[in-house]
Structure formats: C-alpha cells, structure tokens
Amino acid sequence: MARSAGGNGESRREVKQGRVKLNFTLPIICGKLCERENDLEEYMRTIELIAPCHFGLESVLKREITDLGYDVSKVEDGRVTFIGDVEAVCRANIFLRTAERILLKAGEFKAVTFDELFEGTKQIPWEEYIPADGKFWVAKAASVKSKLFSPSDIQSIMKKAMVERLKKHYHKELSLIHISEPTRPY
Known about the structure:
The chain is α+β, with helices and mostly antiparallel strands. The chain has 2 domains: 1-23 and 109-186, VC0802-like, CATH 3.30.2130.30; 26-100, VC0802-like, CATH 3.30.2130. It has 6 helices and 7 strands; from the N terminus they run ββαβαββαβαβαα. It has helices at residues 39-44, 58-67, 86-95, 114-123, 151-170, 177-180; strands at 10-16, 19-24, 47-52, 71-76, 79-84, 103-110, 137-144. A hairpin with a 2-residue loop joins strand 4 and strand 5. Helix 4 packs parallel to helix 5 (151-170). The longest helix has 20 residues, at 151-170. It is globular, with a radius of gyration of 16 Å.
C-alpha cells in the first residue's frame, strides 16, 4: 500500500536553537509527477528529501534509501535526509517500509526573533510549490531550545509570510482564511 506524501500541502517547521527548518510535504501521486510546462526540467531537478522514522530505525532506513539508489546526506535521530528528484518522492513513498512519510525540504534559515522568522519564511520561493489557486495550511509548529517558544505564534507568522510572498508573486489578493483550514480533495 502506498503512503501519501503527507497531506494536501502540509508544512511542518522545527525551531531548534534559533535555526528554522522548513519541511514541506506535497500531495504527489505516482504517474502524475508534473503538470507544469517545464515537466522535464521539474522532473530532473534535485530535491533534498527528509524521511522521518521511529527512533532506532535510522540505519535500516538509510540502507533502504541507498538500495533505491539515492545518496544519503545526513542521518539524525528519527530521520534520514537524502537527495532525489520528483520520482524519488514517489519511489520512496512506495518502497521505504521504515519511513513514516517523505518531506520536501523547502528551506532553512536562522531566526532568533519573530521578525527574522517572517522575513526568512517570506524569502522561500513558495510559488514553486503552491499554485495560484492552491490551498494550504500551516499544520504544526514545534519549538525546542529556542527563543521562539510559542507554536501558535510561529504558525500565525509563517502563514502571513507565505501569503505575502504568494500575493506578491501571483499579483492577486489572498486571504488568511484561504489557508486556515485543511482541505481534502474528493
């Protein structure tokens, strides 16, 4: 049974010691990899992917990833990071038995204040992941050993920054209501 890539455009942030890691999951269906005009270019682009797993299974997951032919870039407690393309997302979802899901690393920056969090989030090219009519939400925030200790504030600030970036790129008005509630395709 294939697992989804994590939802309908769910975004997960981790704030550890002032460094923000943005892991963005995409609803990718195998066989329908790209719908843009630049299909081949998009397909061949390398992406940093993160495969979370249960603690203690990192070495098993690393072996599964290397057996699929992908280069592992980092092994941490509860996760393995590797480099792949769009096809790697599909193949990882199908063939990695010990991974919980596959996350796409959208960006990483240092933020010790909420202003830095807003500006750093706004600098990430969200338009590469979210179309003009796309719906998304900021689902979860975690703060460990950080001055940014309020998960709800982190979520709110990131929502605003993402909307500002998308408004500027798509030249249209978006509302926060557009991204507040998760939506499921039927």
